[in-house]
Write a structure and sequence with these properties.
heterodimer, A: mainly beta, seven-stranded mixed β-sheet, four-stranded antiparallel β-sheet, B: mainly beta, five-stranded mixed β-sheet
Amino acid sequence: KAGVTQTPRYLIKTRGQQVTLSCSPISGHRSVSWYQQTPGQGLQFLFEYFSETQRNKGNFPGRFSGRQFSNSRSEMNVSTLELGDSALYLCASRASPGQLNYGYTFGSGTRLTVV
Amino acid sequence: DAKTTQPPSMDCAEGRAANLPCNHSTISGNEYVYWYRQIHSQGPQYIIHGLKNNETNEMASLIITEDRKSSTLILPHATLRDTAVYYCIVRGDNYGQNFVFGPGTRLSVLP
């Protein structure tokens, strides 16, 4: 079955702009999480959504937001972009608890560059 | 903060077994040990996970000590394509807990 799909793969934005990234989870997966990866901070958790509700949130400013749709697809938005927001943004999906594999499956990420 | 400690880097000769250690001395009874790896600029890839028994799949073996305070990921016959950053993560299975990635171990498989 198809993996986690993230679009776009690459994006260049100007400081002060806003950006929306998209993630389609594996079919049947209802949980979607977002991570930011930078060389200095490594992989950092942004938020997790399940059944269209944010279930957990990392330590990021309110400029970072997300949502999940009824088909489990998710979007994350970053407003008022800063140079430090340049990063690889990773989406991960997983099946519900009670299933054998509780681990996440990650997408290939969206590489955001803010100039 | 990550609940695990891993060496920052390791080398392994191609064709030999790679043994990657992980310390998780504060692991609690309902927390699993997960291993992921990340090849440059790709998303992390799931390798294996376990609770207290040793586990094996087509990619690797996971050996968890009896007291569960440490574990070892074993790649039985490392290839150049196994060069990656390997992350050891402990996590319980509920939606209140996310995966906390530490810096991991950068494994270099040498020809």
